[in-house]
Write a structure and sequence with these properties.
The chain is α+β, with helices and mostly antiparallel strands and 84 residues long. It has helices at 3-32, 67-83; strands at residues 36-42, 47-53. It contains 2 helices and 2 strands; from the N terminus they run αββα. The chain has a two-stranded antiparallel sheet.
Length: 84
């Protein structure tokens, strides 16, 4: 195979996905208007993920997050369960 053909075969799926995502976002923009994306925090798992944020909500600020606080709560709950 020629190098150009190999490069095209590798880049074709990436190109298709990017075009699909662009069309999907454009259709969403036309129906719902401008969106604001940001980090959201899941308290149960202690993880963050990117999602659409409403205008009345604040996005998650990683500088305010203390990962040791999440682990300490979990450790305290486990210790309390062991004592009972």
């Amino acid at each position: 195979m020629e190098a150009n053909l190999v490069a095209a075969v590798i880049l074709l799926p990436i190109t298709v996905v990017l075009i699909y995502a662009g069309i999907h976002e454009y259709r969403r923009y036309k129906s719902e208007g401008r969106a604001s994306y940001g980090l959201a925090y899941d308290k149960e798992t202690g993880t963050t993920y990117v999602t659409g944020i409403s205008e009345d909500e604040d996005s998650f600020d990683p500088n305010d997050f203390d990962p040791s606080d999440h682990n300490e709560r979990q450790s305290r709950n486990e210790a309390d369960n062991e004592r009972a």
